Amino acid sequence: MKEKALSEAAIEAITTGNATGNAVLCDDGLKRPPWAVGNTLLREYYDSEWGMPVRDERGLFERISLEAFQSGLSWLIVLQKRDALRQAFRNFEPDIVAKFGAHDVERLLADAGIIRNRAKIDATINNARAAIALREDGGLVEFVWSFKPAITPAPRTIAEIPTSSEESIALSKALRKRGFKFVGPTTMFALMEAVGIVDTHLIDSHRRGSSGVWTA
């Protein structure tokens, strides 16, 4: 994969280990968190998608599924396999995935393009069924967004970004009671960051406040 050129400041931050702290000034004059400056795919994801509100069932189910597949792996691996995962899971349409059976599981386990983990595959199918069941109580989107906190973090450095919160712990417990799997507190906090429920963009990042959900 071809990498975009970085500013001298970005290169220095990464090579000296300072990339774990402040936002990095990139070649285009914009500041981004260290994880979003060294790879084209991550940078594009950060600039266009991460932290933007997801308020449709299919989209939110996909994000929950991808966060589950990411468990124990890097997010870059998930992004690299995202198109293959979408194809394998029929664009993460809950009504279709919920009908997957043993034959589909074997098909998925034989698909070298995706993350072949039986527990995560089973969880995705299970979670599709759980998402459908939630429609009787307002649906997945309303359920997940009801855990939006009153305030959002305002980190200046990576070290100040939490990995879980009272709300992500509560969401995790609530989803588990509804039958969901692979929805631990840390995974759910990552979901909340990814879909705009909280804004953990660094204060001096050019993306801070871009979701419209939070103003600062």
TrEMBL record:
UniProt entry tagged with the keyword rRNA-binding: no
GO molecular function annotations of the record: DNA-3-methyladenine glycosylase activity; metal ion binding
One Gene Ontology term from the biological process aspect of the record: base-excision repair
EC numbers: 3.2.2.20
Binding residues annotated for Zn(2+), in chain numbering: 201
Key words of the record: Glycosidase, Hydrolase, Metal-binding, Zinc
Name of protein: DNA-3-methyladenine glycosylase I
Pfam families attached to this UniProt entry: Adenine_glyco
